[in-house]
Design a protein that fits this description.
The chain is of the alpha+beta class. It is 36% helix and 24% strand. A hairpin with a 5-residue loop joins strand 5 and strand 6.
C-alpha cells in the first residue's frame, strides 16, 4: 500500500521525500498473524477477519482525537493513551496480509500522505504486540490493549 502511495506522490511532486518503509513478506505477515492469534487465544481455524473483529470489539474509542482533524498528532495520541511505542510501527492494511513497517517519526510526519480519509482502515502496533490502534476510514480512533 505504501508503495502505491509513494508512487502517486512521486508522480505528482518529484520533490516529495516520501519516508522509508519496509513491506513484510507474506511469510513475515503470516507470523504476525499467528502471534496475534495466540495473544487473543484464537485457535488455528480463526482467520484474519476474526482477529480484526476481536481487536475492534475489545477496543475503546478515544475521545478528543480524530484522524481526519487537521490538527491530529500521533505522538499526542500516544501520550494520551500512555503508550510508549518502540521506534517502529507496523501498519496492517488488510487482514494481516499487507503489513508495512515504518518509523514512528516518519509515520507521524507523513500521516496525511499515508492514511486517506474515507478510504483506509488501518491497524497500528509495534513489536510488543501489547496495544493496537485502529484508525478508521471515517476518522474515529480506537485503542485495544493486550
Amino acid at each position: 500500500m505504501l508503495e502505491e502511495k509513494r508512487q502517486y506522490y512521486l508522480e505528482g511532486d518529484g520533490d516529495l521525500n516520501f519516508p522509508k518503509f519496509y513491506t513484510l513478506s507474506l511469510d513475515e505477515a503470516s507470523k504476525h498473524e499467528a502471534h496475534i492469534k495466540s495473544i487473543f487465544d484464537f485457535g488455528e481455524c480463526a482467520d484474519a477477519l476474526d482477529i480484526q473483529n476481536k481487536i475492534m470489539k475489545d477496543s475503546k474509542l478515544v475521545s478528543g482525537f480524530r484522524a481526519d482533524n487537521l490538527k491530529f498528532n500521533l505522538e499526542d495520541l500516544f501520550k494520551s493513551q500512555n503508550i510508549e511505542p518502540q521506534s517502529e510501527l507496523f501498519i496492517n492494511w488488510h487482514q494481516f496480509n499487507k503489513i508495512e513497517r515504518i518509523s514512528v517519526k516518519s509515520f507521524s510526519e507523513f500521516f496525511d500522505d499515508i492514511w486517506y480519509s474515507n478510504a483506509d482502515d488501518i491497524y497500528l502496533y509495534d513489536d510488543s504486540f501489547s496495544w493496537f490502534i485502529l484508525v478508521m476510514h471515517h476518522g474515529a480512533i480506537s485503542v485495544c490493549r493486550k
